[in-house]
Design a protein that fits this description.
Helices cover 24% and strands 28% of the residues. It is of the alpha/beta class and 301 residues long. The strands form four sheets. It has a seven-stranded mixed β-sheet with strand order 6-5-4-3-2-1-18. A seven-stranded mixed β-sheet has the order 7-8-9-14-15-16-17, covered by helices on one side. A two-stranded antiparallel sheet has the order 10-13. The structure holds zinc ion.
Length: 301
Amino acid sequence: MKLTILGCHSATPKENKHTTSQLLEVKGKFFLIDCGEGTQIQLRKLKIKFSLIQHIFISHLHGDHFYGLIGLISTFRLLGRTTQLNIYGPKGIKEIITLQLKMSNSWTDYSLHFHELSSPNSEKIFEDDTICVSTLPLDHRIYTNGFLFTTKTVKRKINSKATESLNLEPFHYSQLQNGLDIELANGIFKENKELTLNPEPSKKYAYCSDTAYNKKLISLIKGVDLLYHEATFLEKHADLAKKTKHSTALQAAKIANSANVKKLLLGHYSNRYSDKKDFIKEASTVFESILLSEDLKTYSI
Ligand SMILES: [Zn+2]
């Protein structure tokens, strides 16, 4: 998986400070997570072919997480999109978008499919042959979900050095990829492990924004390869974090530590802080492996 941060700031967009949006690439497929104002401009900078984005996941209906969505939908239409677009988000998102399309008489020629969410519990919302996506219920001022992306383990890899002299038939390769031992034409048995290599292990990415410190998250994100957790505030503004149901950098690190994640990526910074290093300083008192998200930076998972 490859994660590109399109925007990692909270509240209002500013010059060179974009509100929340992320692009996750999984084996050539692109998943958009949240869509703050100006997301389409950020996507243009990455030169992403828009039609490759077929699934958009919206965490909640605060403007800094979805005010870019109607613009993106409109641009897709103007560019002549024909492929279906799937939007996953809180109940009400269909009504908001549909009203805007109706009042501007700008219905799309492509199919817009809404998957509205209202469950307070984690649920699987998307699955294909490479990835599974489930919700992570968050604790915010309005109904909010994070998202957990889990890649599926692929078939075993053929060890071509070990198989080249064996004159295998196509069905042998399929048996080997599925983990089976094989019988050669001369009656000799070969064990699967002699002829194959382990596949890449499944990878997990957890996206958690926006949320107050929420211990219920811990069991849902245990051991993920990368956790994006919002850190809107520093501890010196812990009272504000509590009031607005956001987290501090220290609280994000405590969640990462308790969930034993491999890496923590901080973001959703309040514009009041000029030096982002203070976020690392604060979080690293309880957790070691910390990254600071930056607009247009890509992270391998
Ligand atoms: Zn919010």
